[in-house]
Write a structure and sequence with these properties.
Layout: E1 5-9, H1 13-24, E2 28-32, E3 44-48, H2 50-57, H3 61-65, E4 73-77, E5 83-87, H4 89-96, E6 100-104, H5 105-116, E7 121-123, E8 128-134, E9 137-142, E10 147-150, E11 152-155, H6 162-168, E12 175-187, E13 198-204, E14 207-213, E15 219-226, H7 232-240, H8 245-251, E16 259-266, E17 272-273, E18 276-278, H9 293-310, H10 315-344, H11 349-362, H12 365-378
Parallel strand pairs: 1-2, 1-11, 2-7, 4-13, 11-18
Antiparallel strand pairs: 3-6, 4-5, 8-9, 9-10, 12-15, 12-16, 13-14, 14-15, 17-18
Helix pairs in contact: 1-5, 1-9, 2-9, 4-12, 9-10
Length: 380
Amino acid sequence: MTTQRVIVTGAGIAGLAAALRLHRAGWDVLVLERAAERRSSGYLLNLHGPGYDAAERLGLLPALRAKDIGFFTSTLVHPDGREKFTIPAAVAQQAVGARALSLFRGDLETALYEAVSATVDLRFDTTVHSLEQDPDGVEVTLSDGSTERADLLIGADGVHSAIRALAFGPETDYLLDLEHMVAAFPLTDVSDHVAEGTGATFLGPRRTAAVMNLGPGRSSAFFTYRGYDTHARPALTTAFGDLGGGIAHALHQLPDDAYFDTVGQIVMDHWHHGRVVLLGDAAWCVTVFAGYGAALALHGADHLGATLTAHPGDLPAALTAWETALRPEVTKRQALARKGIARFAPPTTYHVQMSELMLRTIALPGIRHLVARAIRRANN
């Protein structure tokens, strides 16, 4: 039987997970990444539910457990950095249960890279300039002028996917702008206002800022606010320059290459067309407001490999089955993200007060069990 070949664009979580899963299923895998080298940073993410299950099936848990940050105390602060109240680590731990990991995005990508780098063809600084399909395969022309042919092309190249533009049409046809910006970057130095092993969060009308002090090389800052800007430094200074304490200290460390982008979802009626399929943020992008992007990327990649294996020789049936099974979860997560905007960037002072009241309430021992049950129902 002839070995099937797949081209994966994007060496992020979705792309590397797909490469790993399909290689183990017997496919010949080529991964193309537009960046000149592997990325190793990123914001904090939680891995639980189907995403944790997928990581387990992919054999990633030993490497990921070694990088697990665990749960930490979170403190809400006044604009000047003074403490308002604290949410114990036990609250989050009880909410998500034992089958959960807290990781930096770069650590998850590193675990995936180390699992595939010796077994698949991975080319950096390479993009797809054009593609053509026929009944037997898909052919791509690369940025270096060469061509490659495969049985399947997976577009896992992020929210601004070039593969989506080539195979499905312009980004504007699918992008739902949620009218917010998000920034995240690592910290080399954390203010004494934020004790090691804790996080400090300012929650204000139409904006949130957070600093996580998890020790040397493990600390980071996160900002989100309502608006639209193209340059991080002046935009974040305008939006958060009035804050003090650990958040002001973090903002002074803003690097030129900080992650800074609009918050938007990709909404599509179908994620596959012929021999091209989209995966992860390229297909659905639930956004940081959902807090489930990495989990869905792993789950989607793992399930894609499973359905391709279950439908040998029938690519249309496999892709249809994969999409049918995954779409309800994606639809739910996107809806939760849109509702979650008010949690990340409350529209008014009243909404801030209600959010703080809710956080104070769920920290009460008698309420934690009810919250934990509700969160686990949403994640399963």
